[in-house]
Design a protein that fits this description.
Blueprint (H helix, E strand, L loop, with lengths): L12 H11 L4 H14 L3 H27 L2
Length: 73
């Protein structure tokens, strides 16, 4: 199963509202997700490919397990 971390950031609502007003078409959360994606894309290519392959393999294994559990019901 994919290991995920929850990152919690605290910001005064006034800052959040002001930032989102300037972002226009996206929420602050969506924007920060894009920033994290960009940071991931800046990792060395070998590391990025290794992690992507691990995540893909774990997801494929999870889907296979789910499909097999449906067959055995």
């Amino acid at each position: 199963m994919a290991r995920q971390e929850k990152i919690v950031l605290w910001i005064d609502r006034r800052w959040k509202d002001a930032i989102e007003k300037h972002l226009r078409d996206e929420t602050l959360e969506e924007h920060l997700e894009d920033v994290l994606d960009e940071l991931c894309n800046q990792l060395p290519e070998r590391e990025y490919k290794r992690i992507s392959a691990e995540i893909y393999a774990e997801d494929a294994a999870r889907r296979t397990e789910e499909e097999l559990s449906l067959i055995h019901i």
